[in-house]
Amino acid sequence: MLTPDIRRVLHMLAVAYTGMYGSAVAQVPQVPSAQPAPVAVDAPRPKAPAIPVKDVIRVTLPKESAAILGTEGGAGRMIVFLAAESTLQPGDEPLDAPFFDDPQPMYSVAVSDLAPGSTVTLGADAIAFPEPIAMLDGTYRIQAVFDRNQTERGHIAPGNLVSAVSTVTFSRDHPDVHDVALTIRMPEPDRPQEPNLRWFEMKSALLSRAAGRDVMMRAGVALPTGWDDPNFRRRMFPAIYVVPGFGGRYTGASGIAHMLATPGTREVMPQAVWIVLDPESGLGHHGFVDSPANGPWARALTEEFIPALERQFRLISRADARIITGHSSGGWSSLWLQLTHPETFGACFSSSPDPLDFSKFQAGDLYADTSIFTDSDGKERPSYRVPLTKQFDKVRMTVRDEAAMERVLGPARNSGEQWDAWSAMWSTLDPVTKLPRPMFETVTGTIDHGVVRNEWARFDIAALVRADPTHYVPILRERVRLLCGARDSYFLDRGVQGLKDALLAATAAMQATGQMLPDGPGYVEIVPDETHDTMGMASRLRWNAEMRAYLNSRKLD
Q: What percent of the chain has pLDDT over 90?
């Protein structure tokens, strides 16, 4: 029986794995499953009237705040976030956008040289979502960010400049001018100190050579009972590698360390060294993929970082002593690493992974669709949903909304948000921009099928299984445990079903020709009722026992 304290820390553990496709959106309740499949309910948008007046937002770096500019320079992007008071959850600020549950206004302009005392004006020329500044009508919380850190994802990266939160009111009936001051410098991530927690980083020669600058690899290492006891029954330990979800960082290891130190958890949680990796790059979640844009992250992990960790933390240097796991974007990354580096990892536990079948890419089909924004009937394609009843979902964000917000944050397709991050993982570099080639046109949503078939398709896991079942089927049957909720908030269950179908078909074809296949513990399951967030927690509760059983079967627990 789990105590309330253990359940509380288990929740903290689940949050450590969940990023933008998870804890960054509001929790949604479980609802009973039903047939037929849930129907998406669209909320039609009212037609906007003509732009009546000129409104502006002015952002200043006060001379008295000159010290926060530091030595990084004054080139970057000025972004202003607004949020209706009713949309903010306790503890939220406007800069926590994008809010998938209720997308809020945001605006941006390029800045070539921000200097102390200078003012940047955002008006009709600002890139806008969902409408120009002059169309605003109502009271909002407002916050400005000067985004200049190109080495880490997103506008809240260390070294960026931020304003305090204030309240403003706009009216369509008359011009409005509002002033905001940058007074805060974003700090480095907090790295708590705990007796069983270590922070580890090293310069990667492979990544540094590819980037032409020093690139550091980082991890948070949570140590089990007995690791620092010279009289403990063993000196070498297995390792569980955690790839956080989108927006997650290696700092999530603090929650796991807390759990390992909680009395009673030895009977619940695998007694291994838990290593939370850092999936962040300047272009978003790099997915531990070897890519032209992000660099050879898979090679750097397997050839440099893991050997260094094993030397530092007395880890057993065998594939069967290494488990890889993750949720959401981390779920895709963990599965990719297991399939492409079976010599490195002995078992994979993946939940709610990013799209595994590009013919079932969230709610669309990258191979057959003309646009990612609309279906063949011209209906807006959903990106994020919440369940309302047994049969109905509510669409809270469309793909058009999501892409428009990314355009505000990074019009060069360098926002670091989800679609741009996928391009950085799976596309080659454009020879002119030196940035990843976009898979779709940002305003119209028109799909570039050349990019899809020649570049992205190399990472379509279901297609890889169909093309080379001899390699992939045994790994999936022996080493991969994969779970996804049937009501995944981002329609990721469709891609998981595509992989499951491909695996079943390939297995049947191989058996029909007399090939002997391992009857291992692997599975691909669609779990009734679970959403993206609830699946993250449910999978952790289930997998603690399965991980322990795996380690015990190899005399590693």
A: 81
